[in-house]
Design a protein that fits this description.
five-stranded parallel beta sheet, three-stranded mixed beta sheet, alpha/beta, 294 residues
Length: 294
Amino acid sequence: MTFARSPLIILGCVLAHSHVRGSPVKENGRQAQLAPAATVDSKGGSVRLRGAVEDHRLENTTALHAIGESTRGMPCQCDLGQNGWLPNRRTTPKCIFIDLGAADGNTLRDFVNGKYGSVQQCPSGGQWEATLVEANPRFDGPLKNMQVTYPSQVHASTSTAAYMCEAQTTFYLDTTSVEHNYWGSSMSPNHDDTKKSGHQAVTVPTVNVLKLLYETTIPSDFVILKMDIEGSEWDVLPCLAKSASAQLVDRLLVEVHPQNWGNAGTTQPQFNQAVADLKAKGVDIPDAYHSQTF
């Protein structure tokens, strides 16, 4: 298996049938498009959908993300780009693994162990880097240990929530799902596990996923963006779909949770359109992705 545009097989609890092709340099329309599939989310609640940048500069624009009926609980609005963002000047292409909802780093272990393709086949002789974003302070220690294990390759953003803008947010903790490694922590008070936990919460900063892509990747990288953020995907994906940063992503592994776990009021048709727009930009989105948390 290779990351240099040849077929990859995603193993574990995801069955993905998608292709990458050609050289490490991105091409427009480079990947086969996948149709939305009907699935049931394993964490409870049925959902209907699972799953060269033309201009690498982003506009100095903050877009109002009022796409749904309710934006209560949103700490900030969709931010498509600011002059303060720093484009990545690296010239050597790599595999870039961005893990949103990293838990204790278990998905990074899968990446390193070849479950998403052999890292030895990454560009430039097997070079790779990973950014791990996790809001639950419970996992600060394990993620910092990952940085020690992989110095200069792993960068951990601990006690930080993945979102579409930068702010401070209330983050509700799952304190009851011991057998699932506390998988239900969320920005949403509607999440089943945060309700069971009595809405115990911490305040954490958010990282703008669009900015993260812009500042840590280059067009010739092979970028895997894994997103298991317990409902915030309903807020983030419509914003990402409007951004030039989306064209930096080769594969998006997104676990979709119940719609009412989002805070932006995104409707199902709006979410479906965002997914279709991302695919039209060349982002490979396998159906029925499920992220293990242990």
